[in-house]
Specification:
three-stranded antiparallel beta sheet, TIM Barrel, single chain, globular, 338 residues, alpha/beta, binds zinc ion, binds N-carbamoyl-L-aspartate, 33% helix, eight-stranded parallel beta sheet
Length: 338
């Protein structure tokens, strides 16, 4: 029996790894089933850090998914100049992604200190590009890496007062509180996994490599702070899935890369969290409005339809194991239109 039904403006995903080649074809349909537009992360091999790579990658994505709008980001390289930033904007980028060197998958060539990129940040501020930050201090202990990055975000916000900054995928109550207190130029993306899971879902029983990501999922109090921020109605907290699939064989290799493939269950998990907190009426703003407004983009015109009916998350999608594989869920996407 269908207990409930809802139609939302088609969502944006402001943090998505669409991968390349066969992996892209295998995973992107799990996003386009409900998502009209996404900010595409640039940590491919080679990275998306030149205008020609931006154009080629966008073309690859458009070919695979004509009903989907990729918003392009570039990977900030320590040597990048202001002129390169201007060319990347001309190629259609809306954001640049700052990865501290070694912080996550394919970030070995990232930035060691923001002192290396002062001219680049000035250029991004000048050109109206959004700075997306993987905010973790890689040399610090894993569970406090995000907390120790908060002062870096605060410093960038003070030095570049017109630069729009997104502190990506918040995982701690400290970062949630810090962003809420920062100026209106600073926002944050929140993921389904950080608002619904805890470290026990990763290593509380047997180790689950499919729930291993950076930043690592933390304590119940952190999960609750992320969920509370999502339903708060504060427009500076918006949806970015950080769906980051890795093939099953790689996840089981004994050298599992961080990244959770949450796209197949993302809308279901978000709906369950919002319903549990009595805020289903605020879900549309979180997934379809606040991010677009922060990025100064028009809102999507299509819709996504969901129903409340028990279903089971897939065990596997084309060789990729999703978040909550095989678990019972309550809300389900039935169609995306327009
Ligand atoms: C991402 C990936 O696999 O590309 N992994 C992750 O754990 N989130 C990279 C990232 O965004 O950190
Ligand atoms: Zn990511």
């Amino acid at each position: 029996m269908i207990a409930a039904h809802m139609v939302l403006r088609a969502p944006d995903d402001f943090h998505l790894h669409v991968r390349q080649g066969a992996d892209l074809k295998a995973c992107l349909p799990s996003s386009t089933a409900w998502c009209a537009r996404a900010l595409v992360m640039p940590n491919t091999l080679p990275p998306v850090s030149t205008p020609s790579r931006v154009r080629a990658y966008r073309e690859e994505i458009r070919k695979a998914a004509p009903d989907f709008q990729p918003l392009m980001s570039f990977k900030i390289m320590p040597s990048m100049t202001g002129d390169e930033v201007s060319a990347l904007k001309d190629a259609g980028c809306v954001a640049g992604k700052l990865y501290p060197a070694g912080a996550t998958t394919n970030a070995q060539d990232g930035v060691s200190s923001i002192d290396q990129i002062q001219d680049l940040l000035s250029a991004m501020e000048e050109w109206g590009l959004v700075l997306c930050v993987h905010g973790e201090q890689p040399e610090d202990p894993i569970l406090t890496r995000e907390i120790s990055y908060i002062p870096v975000i605060e410093k960038i916000a003070v030095h570049y007062p017109r630069l729009r900054i997104v502190f990506e995928h918040l995982s701690t109550k400290e970062a949630v509180q810090a962003v809420a207190a920062m100026p209106s130029t600073v926002a944050a993306t929140l993921t389904p996994h950080h608002m619904a899971l805890t470290i026990d879902d990763v290593i509380g029983g047997n180790m689950n490599p499919y729930h291993f990501c950076k930043p690592v999922i933390k304590q119940p109090s952190d999960r609750d702070a992320v969920a509370a921020a999502a339903v708060s109605g504060n427009p500076r907290f918006f949806f970015g899935s950080d769906s980051a699939p890795h093939p099953k064989a790689s996840k089981l290799s004994g050298n599992a890369l961080p990244g959770i493939f949450c796209a197949p269950v993302a809308m279901s998990v978000v709906a369950e969290v919002f319903e549990r907190l009595g805020a289903l009426d605020k879900m549309e703003d979180f997934v379809s409005r606040f991010g677009a407004e922060f990025y100064t983009l028009p809102l999507n015109s299509g819709t996504v339809e969901m129903e409340k009916t028990p279903w089971q998350a897939p065990d596997e999608v084309n060789g990729f194991v999703p978040m909550l594989a095989g678990a019972g869920l309550r809300w389900r996407v039935i169609r995306r239109a327009g």
